[in-house]
Write a structure and sequence with these properties.
Blueprint (H helix, E strand, L loop, with lengths): L7 H20 E3 L4 E3 L8 H13 L15 H18 L5 H9 L3 H17 L7 H29 L9 H21 L8 H4 L11 H17 L10 H8 L3 H11 L4 H20 L5 H7 L5 H12 L3 H8 L7
Antiparallel strand pairs: 1-2
Helix pairs in contact: 1-2, 1-7, 2-5, 2-6, 3-4, 5-6, 6-7, 9-11, 12-14, 13-14
Pfam families: HTH_18 (PF12833)
Organism: Pedobacter terrae
GO molecular function, one term: DNA-binding transcription factor activity
Amino acid sequence: MLLKLTSIFNKLILLSACLGIYVVFYKFQWTINEISLTERLWNPAWMLFGPLLHLALRSLPGARMTGKDGLHLIPAAITSVIYAYVWFGEIFHYTWAGSAFAFYQSSYLVISISLITYSCLTLNRLYSAQHTPANDLLVMWAAIYIIIATLMILMYLCWNVFKIDMGIDYRFFSYFLLLSKCFLGFRYLVNAPTALPAKLEDAVTPMYANSQLSTEMAERYSKMITDCFDNTNIYLKSDLSLELLSKTLDIPKHLLSQIFTVHMKLTFYKFVAQYRINYAIEQMKSSNGMLTIESLAYECGFNSKTSFNKYFKQITNLTPQEYQRTHLDPQRTP
């Protein structure tokens, strides 16, 4: 059976699974008669599992991996430098090596922080996700990481805080779970589909998948919304909100949100901003650019000049000042 490495996601899964096996073999001493844990420095590769989970999530359809995602590897890099520093101290028997070794060994709580943080972020992102093999794998990995992190916190409290002998070394359970995670990764790579879904919609279940809102009702409500905005200046109200519009049109708030997101394909605030910016352009033309940007922003219902500039740029691809210079009489433009 061949591993399918046709996507960045699959390659990240393979890397994480191989790292897991490396971490296990690094920590255990294998003999013919027994398997035991060594007292080596904890492996800084532990700090890569969380970032690799994040990168795998970012490589799924609908997400976009950027250079900034590489910043997540910085804690692992710093830990590796400290590890190398302590290791060399041990090799060459420097006087400070003993205290540095003890400090590094007792700092493994940072592993728990990393695993829990990235796992919770992953579970939150995939909360409404469809049950695809890739999504299910990340969810299982995140759950395993949380259990491992919980065991590490328990060990830290018992050994370093309360000085309690637990009677059993829970590290065996942690490494067993890590091996289980590796097994799940390799099983996925063997049985993985040849390609991940091409669109985000194919990978993530819409929030309103189980909604009872019919197409006819959605069209009727959509027309009520556009008629209201076309025939009134409700969009000029600075306190306009989804709740206020719901009361005005007598449409349940949760249905309004669904109509904007699913049927109109834009957010409520973007919809309102389009009307406000169109109104602003009309005012610019009628005053021939004599209005200041700030006064125009407040007249259109925006609460700040910054917000006005942001939406103006998004909708027209020009700043208000650029629009004035381009479309209005240069001699009358301030």
